[in-house]
TrEMBL record:
The keyword Iron does not apply. This is RAB5B, member RAS oncogene family. Pfam families: Ras. It comes from the Eukaryota. Keywords: GTP-binding, Nucleotide-binding. Residues 183-214 are annotated as: Disordered. GO terms for molecular function: GTP binding; GTPase activity. SMART domains: RAB (SM00175), RAN (SM00176), RAS (SM00173), RHO (SM00174). InterPro entries: P-loop_NTPase, Small_GTP-bd, Small_GTPase. It comes from Monopterus albus. Belongs to the small GTPase superfamily. Rab family. SUPFAM superfamilies: P-loop containing nucleoside triphosphate hydrolases.
Length: 214
């Protein structure tokens, strides 16, 4: 298990209670799959294939006293797959709704996704809004302030991201991880699971603050 965050964590120490389902939603070609690829593998593919239905990946984030594992469902953006979306966001504890800052219509579509999640998803779901393709800022048609104000008004996390340059990609997932309910670290059973992590263990994954790339 690879771990993004601040501390070295021995492989296999993620608590089962700290696994969360996360779904990505948004219009076609806004970069959902590219964000996931950058987060999970630290890679970017200029010619990312279109997702059909949904794709599943997993990645973990290390916080100060725990490890959060995300089970990520990357959904297709084509309209014909919209009816399948509830199957993927049902039971999700977190969602990232992605839009392209150069295409205002994708921002309007993102707002529609927010309304749908607030109406039909889990009542405590953590929703993040990602204004992707920030590397194309000179072509932007959705102003940062407009998206930020909308996010504040609707209680969302918001960041502008770039899967291409890795800008804010890991930071976005880290911010979501911090919002997730954590297993009680004072619980003796929980503590026993995490006892004996050797930071000098050659099998440990040394990780740093998220700054683009794994």
């Amino acid at each position: 298990m690879q771990c993004l965050g601040y501390f070295a964590v021995k492989s296999g120490t993620a608590d089962l209670g700290n696994q969360f389902k996360l779904v990505l939603l948004g219009d076609m070609a806004v970069g959902k799959s590219s964000l996931v690829l950058r987060f999970v593998k630290g890679q970017f593919d200029e010619f990312q294939e279109t997702t059909i239905g949904a794709a599943f990946l997993a990645q973990s984030v290390c916080l100060d006293d725990t490890t959060v594992k995300f089970e990520i469902w990357d959904t297709a953006g084509q309209e014909r797959y919209h009816s399948l979306a509830p199957m993927y966001y049902r039971g999700a504890q977190a969602a990232i709704i992605v839009f392209d800052i150069t295409k205002p219509e994708t921002f309007e579509r993102a707002k529609a996704w927010v309304k749908e999640l607030q109406r039909q998803a889990s009542p405590n779901i953590v929703i993040a809004l990602a204004g992707n393709k920030a590397d194309l800022a000179e072509k932007r048609l959705v102003e940062y302030e407009e998206a930020q104000t909308y996010a504040e008004d609707t209680g969302l996390l918001f960041m502008e991201t770039s899967a291409k340059t890795a800008m804010n990609v890991n930071e976005l997932f880290l911010a979501i991880a911090k919002k997730m309910p954590k297993t009680d670290t004072q619980n003796p059973t929980h503590a026993a699971r995490h006892r004996g992590v050797n930071l000098q263990d050659p099998d440990a994954h040394s990780t740093r603050a998220c700054c683009g790339g794994n």
